[in-house]
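User: tokens in, sequence out, please.
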């Protein structure tokens, strides 16, 4: 049986979903719709497709530990390719196809963005099965979503549907105006372009060589020079930089004569904006999607989300209100697409809120800056079971640690000892120290730093 290798593209930043989505912690790594993150939902849904292997993930270096941890929580052992830089989807898929072709040239790549929502997983699995024979025959299969409305935010695929079968693509069409989108809906011959594909690795690479030889050469040289680093594959940076930047649609699918499309009716959404997330989450009797500690009066058709405190809203209609620990965003839904304008202004002002949340993630766990003032800062550290921080010193600050959950294995100077829940210890300025968690329970510590300088660069690691 032909092996199907899921290829999950996880390189986006999701700027239109700020302040929940940040460049260092984007929407695909967040539980935007259900209890699992969008990446986990994407990886998990392929279990409904027989013959699927563990996935290949293509992501950027900054997200590597979060991606690995989220997939390991699902019991998966993914191959994770770290894109040296964002060059759009065609080079990303090329890297994955080159990796897959090393092991099995006849493998099929099930290419999926990490940030889509699919409500009916069984319908999705049936659509994949409908495309397998065409893909085995060397066709490049895409999935076209049967439109539910005259949407102007999606590209379209023109085809003549024949039930659930794969049929030839007649044309790819750019995002239409409203009247054109209405005509597409009435005709029944146009499908939304989902950005998902079922591709024979060898046939895709052959078409890429035909249309974008420079891109394929750069990607091949980059993978030939790749380094293995823990769970990660690092393509050669200089070689990859020589690749043109292009989408898989423009580079291959719109130019090949091998494109076919399978109709997909599975409750699909690309969750590209707050209104689309509102639709994906579902609503109460007043049309509101509420998340967190929220109280409303006379509010309708609004999305209101609270992460860290009470949010109270009165008289809102068709609005989005999103609260996080360090930012609040309010907008009419009709203006929600312009959140990206706010993001650009934050970038221009060099505001850290566009990059990261207050809670910052590290390979060993995370820390959250709770409070700060002249000469002090308070943080909450969470250290994963089996993890430890680097052995280090600080020249201009001392640290007080109070264990509030679990047991910490502390190194301080030449001593090593355990600190239990409700106990504390003191780390003098200039003393070598380390926190480790060799136990099965997560470790939570409140850290109070005191000194004349508390910057993250006051550290010497050993």
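Assistant: Sequence out:
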């Amino acid at each position: 049986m032909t092996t199907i290798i899921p290829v999950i593209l996880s390189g986006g930043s999701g700027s239109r979903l700020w302040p929940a989505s940040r460049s260092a912690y984007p929407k695909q790594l967040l539980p935007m719709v259900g209890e699992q993150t969008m990446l986990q939902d994407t990886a998990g849904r392929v279990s409904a497709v027989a013959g699927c292997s563990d996935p290949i993930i293509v992501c950027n270096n900054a997200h590597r530990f979060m991606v690995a941890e989220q997939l390991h929580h699902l019991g998966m052992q993914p191959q994770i390719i770290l894109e040296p830089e964002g060059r759009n989807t065609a080079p990303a898929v090329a890297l994955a196809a080159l990796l897959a072709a090393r092991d099995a040239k006849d493998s099929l790549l099930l290419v999926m963005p990490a940030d889509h929502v699919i409500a009916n997983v069984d319908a999705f699995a049936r659509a994949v099965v409908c495309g397998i024979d065409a893909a085995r025959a060397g066709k490049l299969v895409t999935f076209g979503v049967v439109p539910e409305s005259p949407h102007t935010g999606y590209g379209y695929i023109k085809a003549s549907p024949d039930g659930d079968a794969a049929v030839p693509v007649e044309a790819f069409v750019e995002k239409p105006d409203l009247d054109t989108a209405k005509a597409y809906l009435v005709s029944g011959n146009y499908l939304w372009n989902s950005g998902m594909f079922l591709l024979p690795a060898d046939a895709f690479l052959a078409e890429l060589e035909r249309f974008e030889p420079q891109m394929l050469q750069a990607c091949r040289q980059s993978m030939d020079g790749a380094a293995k680093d823990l769970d990660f594959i690092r393509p050669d940076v200089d070689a990859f930089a020589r690749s043109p930047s292009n989408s898989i649609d423009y580079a291959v699918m719109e130019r090949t004569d091998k494109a076919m499309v399978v109709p997909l009716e599975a409750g699909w959404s690309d969750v590209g904006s707050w209104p689309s997330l509102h639709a994906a989450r579902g609503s109460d009797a007043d049309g509101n999607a509420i998340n967190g500690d929220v109280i409303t009066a006379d509010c309708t058709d609004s999305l209101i989300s609270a992460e860290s405190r009470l949010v109270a809203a009165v008289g809102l209609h068709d609005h989005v209100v999103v609260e996080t620990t360090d930012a609040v965003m309010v907008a009419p839904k009709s203006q929600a697409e312009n959140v990206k304008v706010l993001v650009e202004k934050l970038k221009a002002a060099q505001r850290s809120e566009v990059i990261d949340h207050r809670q910052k993630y590290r390979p060993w766990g995370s820390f959250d800056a709770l409070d700060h003032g002249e000469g002090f800062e308070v943080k909450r550290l969470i250290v994963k079971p089996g993890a430890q921080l680097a052995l280090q010193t600080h020249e201009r600050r001392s640290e007080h640690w109070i264990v509030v959950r679990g047991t910490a294995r502390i190194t301080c100077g030449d001593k090593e000892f355990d600190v239990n829940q409700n106990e504390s210890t003191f780390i003098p300025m200039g003393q070598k120290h380390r926190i480790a968690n060799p136990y099965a329970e997560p470790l939570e510590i409140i850290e109070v730093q005191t000194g004349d300088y508390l910057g993250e660069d006051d550290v010497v690691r050993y």
